Task: structure prediction
Amino acid sequence: MGEARVIGLVSGKGGVGKTSLCVNLGVSISDFGYEVTLVDADFSASNLGVYLGRYDHPVKIQDVLSGEDEVESAIFRHPTGVNAVTSSNEVTDIEPDLSRMDEILSKAAQSSDFVIVDFPPGLDTTVSSLMESCDELIVVTMPTQTAGINAAQITEKAKLDRQALLGSIINKVEGEPSRELITREVETMTETHILSEVPYDHEMKEALFHHKPLIEYDPISEAAMEIKSLAADMSGEEYKKPRFASIKRKLNKIKERIG
Ligand SMILES: Nc1ncnc2c1ncn2[C@@H]1O[C@H](COP(=O)(O)OP(=O)(O)O)[C@@H](O)[C@H]1O
Ligand SMILES: [Mg+2]
Result:
């Protein structure tokens, strides 16, 4: 275990899949044997705990930012194997003082190999300040005009601030060039390297409904396999998508139905 890289998952637009990817990437990297800590920095729409199966740890990030608690008491071990710091749902906690953010992230980094920060959408002063607290950024976007434009804005901001950009993830790809941007267009718009294209997968919502990360709910679903492959790239591990995954998925569904 070493001093972790602190990676921020950013996006201009909301709803692109940052929190879903944060959890599923985190669990996948942890499955390769690394210590991973997920940090919810989306203070106004905090839902990392929900995506971790409605996990409600009593000490939230705001308690540390306010100086009430120590970082160590906010970090908890989740049954999936990842560590996490969740955020409060209190309306009074949506604009915390961020002066202790660097300390929180560096403490988390000391005991991890990867720290992944789940960002709020947009490009306000909170986002700028959080970006400065990260070592590297990954832009999450979707193959739509609006998401692409907002992703381009955040990329430009990151470049102006000389932040290290690992690249972009295009999420919810349906592979329909007549109604969505193609990879090259997203690449040109954002001027970033495309790290991964995660397919639109209805099981993502289904998994959430069952309080499980997709990686655990259905490890051979289309999106799960792509996320695992990205996790392997990020950690320098090997992952081969299982052969005949779609046939195996169909067989699993039939087995479920039969009970
Ligand atoms: N690859 C995907 N395929 C289908 N639905 C997805 C995918 N990724 C995320 N979603 C869904 O999109 C919605 C928004 O995702 P979320 O992770 O909360 O986005 P953000 O954190 O960027 O606001 C959720 O309902 C989630 O289940
Ligand atoms: Mg989110």
Observations:
- Residues 5-258 form a domain with the Rossmann fold fold (CATH 3.40.50.300).
- The longest helix spans residues 145-160.
